[in-house]
Amino acid sequence: xxxxILNDNWQFCEKGSEKSYPARVPGSQYxxxxxxxxxxxxxxxxxxSKTAWVADRxxxxxxxxxxxEEMKGKEKVCLYCECLDTLxxxxxxxxxxxxxxxxxxxxxxxxxxxxxxxxxxxxxxRSPAEFLRQMQEEDxxxxxxxxxxxxxxxxxxGCHFGWDWGxxxxxxxxxxxxxxxxxxxxxxxxVRAEQEHIKDxxxxxxxxxxxxxxxxxxxxxxxxxxxxxxxxxELIAACSVTPSGNMTADFTVENxxxxxxxxxxxxxxxxxxxxxxxxNGETDSFTRKIGLRTIELDRSADEYGTNFRFxxxxxxxxxxxxxYIPPDAMLTRVxxxxxxxxxxxxxxxxxxxxxxxxxxxxxxxEFYDICDREGILVWQDFMFACNPxxxxxxxxLENVLGEVTYNVKxxxxxxxxxxxxxxxxxxxxxxxxxxxxRLREWTEKFFWHILPEHLKKLDERTHFIPGSPVGKGYMDxxxxxxxGDVHMWTVWHGLQPLTYYRxxxxxxxxxxxxxxxxxxxxxxxxxxENQLDLTSPVMQAHQKCPSGNGKIAxxxxxxxxxxxxxxxxxxxxxxxxxxxxxxxxxHWRRNRGRCNGSMYWQLNDCWPVLSWASIDYYGxxxxxxxxxxxxxxxxxxxxxETKNSVELHVINDKAVPFKGRIEYILSRFDGTRLASxxxxxxxxxxxxxxxxxxxxxxxxxxxxxxxxxxxSLVDNDDNVICxxxxxxxxxxxxxxxxxxxxLDITVxxxxxxxxxxxxxxxxxxxxxxxxxxxxxxxxxFDLVAGEEKLVTLPVPGDMTAxxxxxxxxxxxxxxxxxxxxxxxxxxxRTKIRLIPINIANWVAYHFM
Length: 848
Fold this sequence. Notes:
Radius of gyration: 28 Å
Largest sheet: 6 strands, antiparallel
CATH class of the domain at 2-183: Mainly Beta
Distance between the termini: 58 Å
CATH topology of the domain at 2-183: Jelly Rolls
Strand content: 25-35%
């Protein structure tokens, strides 16, 4: 096959205008208008509303093309684009050759014999916003609480039309490489490898059944081969096959190298399956990378209800992860580097799974390549979220089933693929669609019957659930802790206390979280200095959840006094978010077996915003992203404290037992020791247990507000696995001293080495590097009296130690000045509770 990329020399114009401008491909109308200075940057200040008019306009993209000499005379020539966004009519020399209406399916049109010398290629993009308004008049969908009404009518990322963390930027354009393809006779369109794990005597083995699908016109002398290559690149076997529409071969791999998630093993070997087809002197090939593994979702009944437990190669997993959204509202800005940074952060945070959420898009191959390579499991939603869809429309149903077919074929061989999920929250939201009987009936029909039946023809091995959350059946136990997964929003939306999660023993919590503010570097990228206030117009414009900024301050004031300085508000909001997610995750991990997974909302942002993300739009780590590395560690210790006591637990997610001990010291903030001890902490593989309850009640009685318990998990070779701390009062009630923090900074080979030392106890030590978004090796940590810690930071090549000392600063929560009295903080919380949307949510999450 021959390809010719056509990304250069594009022009675009608004339909009806005679003036055209240069366009970038891949790209979108927003990016092109922004590059020309015709719109302000919608990510800055309150400019989003000033660019809303763009969504109402049609645009035309055009360029001249000629057929390359090497393509002339080929049997087939097609115009191909992996992602055309979205409603498009395609013209060649004034003749309409095709239409397109699905972002999630590649565009391909036969142009054999139609491309002349200097032919005019034009793509007319229709306004998606205007299309939705028209469709709402023809077939009204219920009100959308997360953006523009009518989004179920279009197969395009729902979040393009606004969400409770995202802007209204409905792009159109050529969103991937666009090209001509030409070939003779035949081409391979897909390769599938089905695994059967067996025992060959005492030895493990894997049988592989490989199928190569072809578009095939028989020709004399055609030849085909299917081969299997080891992770090290050695040929295991090659099989000559008869060329046909479906070519098959069988292989047996003895003593296979199994693929594991990175929390279990550092081995993520990938075998290569390759099909080649030679005909008329031309060879076409198709390659798939596969990991040999078994992944099951255990939904069996047990003493607590119905399980929801992933099992990898026979090893039960506790899932630790986050929900992933598109990393940019303008998705053509995303590249492999974006994925490397985000998924690298996932791995460093000891997460073993990400959920690709259903209001965005099926990700690119680069995303899944990294997950395969790094041992990160993927929970993959189909792209349906929070709305009913018109599946009763035959054309719409045919369109989405074609979308499912394409994306399942593309992803079903992936080592990382753990689960197909039909939708996000459609069942739970359907209670609000009572007048829409037909929509509710088709919701059940599609997700519980049509979709799984269609999926079974394509991928029998990857488990499927109709939606998330899911219960025992349609609208049966969908919010129950006893069955399936849950989305737990009683904290945040329902204004329950931060420690509420300890009351809940869900089998698997796939959404929960708390909002916080982004890094100060990020805030300054969109907000002028005179708007640095949670109530300012700009800060409100970058908050998409109703009453969101008020709730950030509300929850901050439950742990801390509301601070006088804006920068301290940012700092404390991140700490509260981090502690909320940590406390919940550790609770569920301590109850491993009954609880089997925790995935917080959300990993990342798509623009600069105040949200639930742990990594902001520019890659700045919030406190949560740093602390997740510790509370998600495969082997760790955890404390469950009350006012007068504490229980210490060991958690072991590894596939081998742990032998060791927990050591603990209770001391005053000035370092005076009050109590100490140790206890055996042996723990079986893939399990958790309570180790001890230190006898510290008497010591706490006199110094609860002036002491800290530090505890360490130590193995039998005296290696310290982790060291953690726990307090016994909210921070706003503590008598925290000035910790007298000091920094010693050196720079070597583009890495700053920072030694942080505290003379007295320091709570949530935060390092900040002005103008640098690269993460520190650790941050937001505690230091007891006399303790020091070495932290590193990547810095530019021209950074000197003196310059590093100028931009790197350190702080802790001690000494933060309150904004107002404690009573004023109480009145503020009362005011937030009485906001109508918060009252409604409180009622909904308590009684419905």
